[in-house]
Amino acid sequence: MSKELVSKKPAAKIRMGIVGGGPDAFIGNIHRMAARLDGRIELVCGAFSRDPEKSRSAGQALYLPEQRCYPDYQTMMQREAELPAAERMEFVAIVTPNSTHYSIASSALAQGFHVLCEKPATLNLAEARALQQQVTETGLLFGLTHTYTGYPLVMEARERVARGDIGKVTKVVAEYTQGWLAAVMGGEDGKQAAWRLDPAQAGASCCMGDIGVHAANLAEFVSGQSIATLLADLQSLEAGRSLDDDGSVLLRFDQGARGVLFASQIAVGEENNLRIRVYGTKGGLDWQQQEPNSLWLKWPDRPAELIRAGQGYLGVNASNNSRTPPGHPEGYIEAFANLYSNFATAIADARGTEAPQSSTMNNVPGIDEAVKGMAFIEAVVASSAAGGQWTQLNCDVSR
Ligand SMILES: NC(=O)c1ccc[n+]([C@@H]2O[C@H](COP(=O)([O-])OP(=O)(O)OC[C@H]3O[C@@H](n4cnc5c(N)ncnc54)[C@H](O)[C@@H]3O)[C@@H](O)[C@H]2O)c1
Fold first, then answer.
1. Model-wide pTM > 0.90
2. Residue 265 beta carbon below 6 angstroms from any ligand 1 atom
3. DSSP notation for 93-127
4. What was the pLDDT predicted at 185?
């Protein structure tokens, strides 16, 4: 384990609750593995399902005491708040479908709990703004699990761009393709597909809300620039869908870069093909999620350079968020665990029992990214609905 992950050990484990992640859920179990990885966080309670019986049995399968397997999130917030401060949960992870994020996060903040929420942050931009106000008013922490910012080499890419290695950023290409929503690969079967294709549960977009927003966040995270305006062309290529399953977007960034973002969930045969390329006046870089331990740097006057995870030449962010030596691959769970670990550090600081740490929310997207993500989704949908018009993001992109 890296020096930083050890030195940031809190005085006592950080106590976590979870909403969602019941039987057959996708991301809830990933969150629990990530939270456990560094031994700094303990799951103490949960409301795992809308069905009280399923919630109880899911909690018991995780060895939680029966009284802390709650029938619903409202009961969980209330009962946890009544427990002694040293026992109650300190933060809640929200891993439910999009339409529920706002009410769960809002009720957690109202009871004094920090929030680590899945993306997209809310059902729409208005909810994200309301949450932003509540986060500001309460002074509590809000983290957003844009998983891919947790990869060491994504942090390395960001650091190298920020220090000018590739010069001034001029072009950003972000792509995210999956095939699982294509009829030939199983189409609408399964509950994950059902809610993602339902506007009442997913919001205004399926593909752009589910994965396009990750690509947008990654483009901004690595390039250091914010998307200011965009022109989008969305479609549902499988018949009978009311939300997009594919889309292409042109981007203009606030500091002058131009970009292209495309996302698809009907790209037959693709698994989880997220890739970011950033070009500047001196060079370029290229990172792919399915080969996360390699980062390519490209130069005009010499061969391309391969940067590898775990190596001693990496910068402070990549080093502090790595656990294994070179050639011992870390991946998706570890990237998620980095978000958890950095969030835990921020909570330890907020406990006031330890000396403040410098990197608190570093590399963990927060409430501003939540608002930007929802503004991105709404702009993409509006631009496409208007026949592909340049559309400004309805948020302060410079934040
Ligand atoms: N960061 C990532 O890479 C990533 C990956 C997948 C999903 N997600 C996001 O995670 C969220 C969940 O996605 P999923 O694929 O795991 O969905 P899922 O359908 O597999 O699981 C959702 C779970 O939430 C439970 N649930 C629903 N409403 C609830 C409520 N009111 N109270 C308690 N539990 C409730 C369901 O019973 C289920 O267990 C979505 O917002 C999605 O966009 C993020």
1. yes
2. no
3. EEES-GGGHHHHHHHHHHTT-EEEEPSS-SSSHHH
4. 87
